[in-house]
């Protein structure tokens, strides 16, 4: 009998199912190219059937650990890392937490599918090499690649979002100066916001990103400056809530804002990078923005100590 495995995505998914099912002994039927449970009279010498690779609880644990290490959302990464370190009941808790967020659940399912198909492909290729056949590649299909656009809805904000934007703008500003005193943060905030049109005013524009459950995940708040024929959009705040970070949502929000400005006949767009927001300069550069100016700070007591003449 000539041995061969014609690997397809459908067959790979059958093999994954059989590997994870601990209730039966699953084999690959080389005649039918299907996965079958408990084939009758199975012996190691039977050339028709090949036992599927073993999949142990520790393999499942390691898969989850690799996913957590790859997750860029800081809040859920830490929650899941704590669960995996808790021992008993970790598998169930992991699934419960993943299920809280549709976007993270999609990331997990895509990661698991990709990793498991990779394991299956390696197993098949080991067999093919043993049988003197060429190695195969199973290309990843696009449906496993989670997209921001399918997880969040980016749309124009209305007056109902104005109060929330005000509150989150202050939270974002405080976060960018988290090592400073409350009094200093208040002074800097009032300075940077003095004279700026309020969110919800005619010269303000708000874009919001909402989850499938209609919760706010992030926003862009920009003000419009006009002089003659020149119209400039100044992004006063670009903010993503901590639990939704690490998925490129800020980039998606800013890109949508820039597209709308271009369609609206704006001359330029300016993004203010205040405090720690300057850490995101590289990400903005990838969108085509260039540095225009900067702010430098110094603590005067420290400066005096370090520069005082002897």
Overview of the molecule:
With 310 residues, the protein is an alpha+beta fold. The protein has a domain at 150-301: Gcn5-related N-acetyltransferase (GNAT) (Aminopeptidase), CATH 3.40.630. It is built from 11 helices and 8 strands. The protein has a 5-stranded mixed β-sheet with strand order 4-5-6-7-8, with helices on both faces. Strands 2-1-3 form a 3-stranded antiparallel β-sheet, covered by helices on one side. Strand 1 (26-29) and strand 2 (34-37) form a beta hairpin. Helix 1 (9-20) packs across helix 5, helix 2 runs antiparallel to helix 3 and helix 3 (74-84) packs antiparallel against helix 4. The longest helix has 29 residues, at 102-130.
Question: Which secondary structure elements does this structure contain, and how are they paired or packed?
Answer:
Blueprint: H1 9-20, E1 26-29, E2 34-37, E3 49-51, H2 57-70, H3 74-84, H4 90-98, H5 102-130, H6 148-151, E4 153-156, H7 159-176, H8 182-193, E5 204-210, E6 216-227, E7 230-240, H9 249-263, E8 268-271, H10 281-286, H11 300-307
Parallel strand pairs: 7-8
Antiparallel strand pairs: 1-2, 1-3, 4-5, 5-6, 6-7
Helix pairs in contact: 1-5, 2-3, 3-4
């Amino acid at each position: 009998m000539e041995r061969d495995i014609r690997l397809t995505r459908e067959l790979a998914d059958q093999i994954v199912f059989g590997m994870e099912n601990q209730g039966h002994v699953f084999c690959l039927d080389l005649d039918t190219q299907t996965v079958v449970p408990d084939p009758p009279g199975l012996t190691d010498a039977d050339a028709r059937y090949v036992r599927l690779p073993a999949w142990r609880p520790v393999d499942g644990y390691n898969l989850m650990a690799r996913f957590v290490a790859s997750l860029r959302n800081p809040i859920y990464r830490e929650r899941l890392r704590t669960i995996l370190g808790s021992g008993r009941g970790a598998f169930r808790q992991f699934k419960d937490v993943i299920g809280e967020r549709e976007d993270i659940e999609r990331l997990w399912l895509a990661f698991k599918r990709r990793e498991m198909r990779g394991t299956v492909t390696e197993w098949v290729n080991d067999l093919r090499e043993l049988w003197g056949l060429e190695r195969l590649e199973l290309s990843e299909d696009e449906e496993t690649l989670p997209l921001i656009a399918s997880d969040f809805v980016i749309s124009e904000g209305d007056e109902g979002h104005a109060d929330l934007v005000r509150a989150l703008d202050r939270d974002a500003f405080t976060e960018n100066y988290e090592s400073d005193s409350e009094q200093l943060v208040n002074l800097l905030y009032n300075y940077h916001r003095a004279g700026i049109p309020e969110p919800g005013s005619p010269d303000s524009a708000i874009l919001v990103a909402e989850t499938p459950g209609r919760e706010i995940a992030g926003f862009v708040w920009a003000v419009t400056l006009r002089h003659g024929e020149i119209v400039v959009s100044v992004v006063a705040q670009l903010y993503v809530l901590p639990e939704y970070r690490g998925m490129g949502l800020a980039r998606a929000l800013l890109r949508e804002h820039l597209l709308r400005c271009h369609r609206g006949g704006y001359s330029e767009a300016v993004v203010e990078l205040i405090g720690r927001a300057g850490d995101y300069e590289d990400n903005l550069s990838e969108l085509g923005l260039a540095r225009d100016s900067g702010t430098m700070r110094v603590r005067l007591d420290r400066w005096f100590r370090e520069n005082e003449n002897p």
